[in-house]
Amino acid sequence: MIRPAAEPGLPELDGPPDPDGGSGKRTWGPDFLTALFQNPLDPGYADAAARRAKEGPRAGPRRLMAGGSAALTLVVIGFLLVVAYRQTVAEEPARTTARESLIGQVHNRRAETEELQRRADELADEVAALRDSELGGEAVARLLELEALTGMARVRGSGARITLTDGPTSVDAVTGQRRTEAQVKDIDLQLAANALWEAGAEAIMINGQRLTATSRIRQAGEAILVDIRPVGSPYEISAIGPDDMADDFRKGYAGQFFETLSDRFGISFEAAQADDLTLEAAAGFKLRSVQPSIAPSDSPSSNAPSGAGSPVPDTSVTEGGR
C-alpha cells in the first residue's frame, strides 16, 4: 500500500496515536489572556529580584554612580524651582501694577457712566417739561396713560403677586449630574405671564423686569433671561389688574399646573392679592415709530375695568421712567 507523502516539517505517524504518550499525544497550553492574568509581571522582574537577593546590595562604583545620579537629579530640580520662584517674585510687582491700573480704569469708567446717566436724566426732564408745556392737559394725560400701558412709565395699583420657587435639587446616582425637574423653567414663567394677561392684567413685572409687547422669556442653560436680563429663584411675578385676579389665576389652568408641580417636584407656588404694587418702567425701551394725532380720541383703556386695579401713571417719572 502506498501512503501519501507527509507534509514538510510534520512527522510521519505510523498507525494511530498512542493514548498513553509518545509523539501522537496532544498537549494543551493556556491561551494568551489566561497566561497574562496568571503571570501579570514579566519574568524579567522576578529574575532581577532573585539576582539582587542572591548577590546582595550593590557596592563600589556602581552604587556610587546610582547615588550620584539621584543627587544630581535633585540638584537640577531644586535649581529649576529656585529659578521659577525668583521669576514669579520678579513679575509680581508688574502684575500688581497692571491689576491696580485696571481697577482704577473700571472705577473711572463707572464714574463717567454715572455722570452721563445723570445728565441724560436731566435732559429727559427738560424734554418732558417742554412737551408738557406744548401739549394741552388732555393730550398730556392721554400720553401718560399710553406710556403706562406700553411699559414706558412707572405705574401703581392693586392686583396679584405670583411667587414660584425652585424645589430641592437632587443628584442622579448614575450620572452624578444635578436633576432639573424641580427647577422653574422659562416655559413656566411664560405660562404664568400669559395666564395673568388672560385674567385681565394691565401691567406685569418679573423680578423687577417689566414686560412689554416685545418682551422675551428664554432659557440659557440653567438661567432664565427676561429681555436678556437674568432672573433667579424665587421668581416674583407682580401684575396690576382686577382685584380677583389672584383667585382666578389659582383656580385656572396655570394655577392647577403649578399645584401639580408643587406636589410632584416640591416647587413652591403662591398666589396672593396685592393692594399696593409699583411696577417700574421697562429698561432699554426704544421708541420705534410715532404717528401724530390730529384730534385726541377716546382713551384706549376706557373699556378696561374701573377701580383700584387699573394702573395709574406715576407722574414723578417721565420719559421711560428715568
Automatic annotation (TrEMBL):
Coiled coil (residue ranges): 106-133
Keywords (A to Z) from UniProt: Coiled coil
Superkingdom of origin organism: Bacteria
Annotated stretches, region: Disordered: 1-29, 291-322
Composition skew (Low complexity), residue ranges: 292-313
UniProt-recorded name of the protein: Uncharacterized protein YlxW (UPF0749 family)
UniProt keyword Coiled coil present: yes
Gene Ontology cellular component terms for the protein in this record: plasma membrane
Family the UniProt entry places it in: Belongs to the UPF0749 family.
Keyword Coiled coil: yes
